[in-house]
Amino acid sequence: MKRSSTGFYSFRKQVPENLRTLWGKREVKVALETKDEATALTRCSIVLADFNATKMKLIKLLEGGSDLAPQDIRNIADSRVRSWGIHPDQAPVLKAGHTVEEYAEFKEAERVYLEQKELYYDLAADELIDEDQRQQDYRSGKWGQPDYQTPYKAQSKTTVAGVTAGVVAGRVTTTVNPTLMDAMNSYLEVYAEDKIGGNARTIQSQTTNTKRVLAQFASFIEGGRTAKGFQREVTSITVEEAIGFRRHLREQHPNSGTGDTNLRYPSAVFSHIIEKGQGLYIDNHLMRNPFYKLRNKKREEQLAKKKWPLNPEEFRKYEAAANDAEDHVKLLILFLLYTGCRVSDAYGLEVRDVNLTENIPTMYLRHNSIRRLDKDGIQANIPLVGPLLEALRSYEMSNSPNDPVFPEFANIKSGRDRASGEANKVRKMAKITREGVTAHSARHTWQDRLDAARVPIAERDYLIAHKTKQSSAVAQAYGSAYPAKNMLENQLAALACKDWGDFRS
User: Fold this and answer.
1) What is residue 503's predicted lDDT score, i.e. its pLDDT?
2) In sequence order, which residues have a C-beta less than 8 Å from that of residue 353 and are 6 or more positions away?
3) By 3-state DSSP, what share of the chain in percent is helix, strand and coil, each rounded to 5?
């Protein structure tokens, strides 16, 4: 059991080397989805028991016995044959209307495929060849004829070796076209495994959005019958249906790029299941992702909703309304107004990240046990000034340095959404309803105040924790080339700027 930098536990265990071919992987990784050690240990014991049960099955199989179910045997055989590149589904196919170059490529691929197949028979000859029949063929004169084919024994359908031989020969079919539900579940399983140790909220968001959009698609292709849509085989879904779904999404979101953005979820699912090697063929041609290049990113950018900064009057109204809110909500909004930080940066602060004892009070933005920094963010020491500093000095925080500054948000699963919701609720109470103005507008506002104060761009970006090549250089040289005192002067200059103008409107 391992604990990630974000505090979440996961089960990770190496597969014994002699079992990796049968198992199909080198390591088993399972997210335990908890930060609580006791809960993690309970879940880990369940996963470990399953791991050991699977291991014992495969050990018995290697020793000659088998207590595997017929489907398990077919799955193992299928995986083996595909790993060797000789599955019937992997046989090269010559397209209609081929060019000379395509024909040459096909013949070369066919040669390699047949050589690999012959190598398999050579290696398995002793076990597979029907020696009695071959002796009869020799005595009858059949053996040695130009069209003579080596006779093979009927293979057992209860052993991996027997089913493997049947798959190679084309006598046993293992390919089952996955349904839309199969494809989605497979994608989410692999996604969660690949993201172990990553941002838990990102994983949750990707999972939720994938299920939501795929359910919409399933409903669309079957006239509102979601369950039936999920049971559709992936190979039965057409490009025309994907295009129709895009039209449907655009009609739902006529004034934004959300419709096109949502196409990324089914596209990712189809790309995954096709690349997985499931043998997804349509008319002897490898299936193409029906959502390939359907998303129009230029359209998304053109329709993206603009976010405007607060003008001076809106700023004053927002701060006044915050003063009437609960202490933790008031403090959250003051962080937004007087540092320009993101909501996630504020709600994710630990007590040790807020330093009020030094000559220059600062907040330290960094990865911690509550959250990871935004992908566009940098680690930064940001001086605290004005009403925010005053509020912090009277705010009751925990004595434990690892505790959150905002337990009301940090201790719940949807903390960032809750914090953002509270900040926007106060904005609406202040009657700030101009199109394009949200709680996040406070970030653009502080940037405008820094600009109006003539703060150099590199230092401005550092102070709002915006990751650029220039601000990263400031972060590297902070304390030497960029003393904390200079950063404080920048913040105070922005604070003194009372009329920054609504430059972006």
Assistant:
1) 46
2) 363, 364, 365, 366, 368, 405
3) 55, 5, 35
Strand partners, 354: 363
d(CA 139, CA 408) in angstroms, rounded, equals 88
Only one residue has tokens 């130009």, namely 146
| Rg of the chain taking only CA atoms, in angstroms | 31
For the segment 454-464, the average pLDDT, to the nearest whole number, is 94
Q: What is the amino acid identity at position 99?
A: T
Q: Indicate the length of the chain as a whole number.
A: 505
Give the Cα separation of 329 and 321 in Å (integer): 10
Task: Fill in the DSSP letter of residue 236.
Answer: G
SS3 per-residue string spanning 6-63: CCCEEEEEECCHHHHHHHCCCEEEEECCCCCHHHHHHHHHHHHHHHHHHHHHHHHHHC
pTM of the model: 0.51
Average the pLDDT over 16-45 and give the result.
75
Tokens at 410, concatenated: 């940090």
Determine the Cα–Cα distance for residues 345 and 336; give it in Å rounded to an integer.
9
Beta strands 27-31 and 9-14, pairing class:
antiparallel
Q: Sign of dihedral through CA atoms 243, 245, 250, 256?
A: negative
Query: How would residue 304 be classed by pLDDT, with cut points 50, 70 and 90?
Result: low
Q: In Å, how far are 88, 122, 156, 250 from 127, measured between CA atoms? A: 21, 10, 11, 60
The rounded distance, in Å, linking the Cα atoms of 423 and 318 is 10
Average pLDDT (176-196) is 82
CATH number attached to the domain at 312-496: 1.10.443.10
Residue 406: which pLDDT band, with cuts at 50, 70 and 90?
very high
Q: How far apart are CA 499 and CA 449, in angstroms?
A: 8
Q: What residue segments make up the domains of the chain, in order of their start? A: 2-62, 70-132+146-169, 180-303, 312-496
Look up residue 460 and give its two tokens.
Answer: 């401005």
Write 464-469 long-range contacts (CB < 8 A, 24+): 464/339, 464/340, 464/341, 465/341, 465/342, 465/345, 465/365, 465/373, 465/377, 465/378, 465/380, 465/382, 466/376, 466/377, 466/378, 467/375, 467/376, 467/377, 467/378
3-state secondary structure 55-97: HHHHHHHHCCCCCCCHHHHHHHHHHHHHHHCCCHHHCCCCCCC
Separation in Å, CA 401 to CA 270, 353, 419: 46, 8, 21
DSSP string, 111-169: HHHHHHHHHHHHHTHHHHB-HHHHHHHHHHT-TT-TT----BPPPPSSSHHHHHHHHHH
pLDDT digits (tens, 9 = 90+) for 355-384: 998 899 999 999 888 887 877 789 999 999
HSE of 239, CA atoms in CB hemisphere, 13 A: 8
Q: Which residues share a beta bridge with 383?
A: 362
Q: Poorest-confidence range of 62-76, 162-176, 343-357?
A: 62-76
DSSP helix/strand/coil, 173: coil
